[in-house]
Design goal:
Blueprint: H1 3-37, E1 47-50, E2 55-56, E3 59-60, H2 62-76, E4 83-86, H3 97-107, E5 115-118, H4 124-137, E6 143-148, H5 153-162, E7 166-171, H6 178-194, H7 196-202
Parallel strand pairs: 1-4, 1-6, 4-5, 6-7
Antiparallel strand pairs: 2-3
């Protein structure tokens, strides 16, 4: 066997090995995403954080409403005295997701003094980074309970920890599709390698 063929075979098996490691890595991440989606980590914290979702001219979409109702239940259960609503607006929107969440919870009886609005950010990293700044500026503490759809659990917690929050997750009662779990698997897999900040800059 010539040296050229030996090098080719060596490179071939290195490539096969790397591909196998990549498949294993993504597979393990998928299991972690799926497992996290089934786990409610509700506990007393400094603040409950509602991650943003679509709103329709000041009215929460069904997804956002489910998140707000879940946060309200946690608030009523005494998990925290502060609820943070997050989310910016889309081009042409009159209202932000954060403000829509604020007015919805206020109308449900939560005092304005117990609500905070974060309207900076169009993705999870930006929303949580801005939330961390608000909590630090007000001296409210950094332990948070994130509320979002089940499939979002693992990535949301890891993003929160990257921005300096001590985070746990409590899901809504909405179902997560395989497509959503796969999308989150890609997001977590890439974010763990290059950092969630860089991933957010690409979104």
């Amino acid at each position: 066997m010539t040296d050229k063929r030996r090098r080719f075979r060596r490179l071939f098996w290195v490539a096969v090995g790397l591909a196998a490691i990549g498949v294993l890595y993504v597979g393990v991440t998928f299991v972690q995403v799926w497992s996290a989606s089934r786990n409610d980590q509700a506990r007393p914290v400094d603040a409950i954080v509602v991650l943003g979702a679509a709103q329709y001219d000041g009215r929460p979409s069904p997804v956002l409403e489910a998140r707000l109702n879940a946060a309200l239940q946690l608030y009523n259960d005494g998990m925290a005295s502060i609820i943070v609503t997050t989310g910016s607006n889309q081009l042409g929107d009159r209202f932000t997701q954060g403000f829509t969440g604020f007015t919805y919870l206020r109308d449900q009886g939560v005092p304005e003094a117990n609500l905070r609005i974060v309207v900076d950010g169009t993705n999870t990293f930006e929303e949580l980074s801005a939330t961390a700044n608000v909590l630090r500026d007000e001296g409210l503490g950094d332990e948070v309970l994130l509320v979002s759809d089940p499939y979002h659990a693992l990535r949301a917690v890891e993003v929160a920890r990257e921005v300096g929050l001590q985070a746990w997750f409590s899901p809504t009662d909405l179902d997560s599709s395989v497509r959503q779990l796969l999308r989150e698997t890609v997001g977590v897999s890439v974010g763990r390698v290059v950092g969630f900040r860089r991933v957010s800059n690409l979104s």
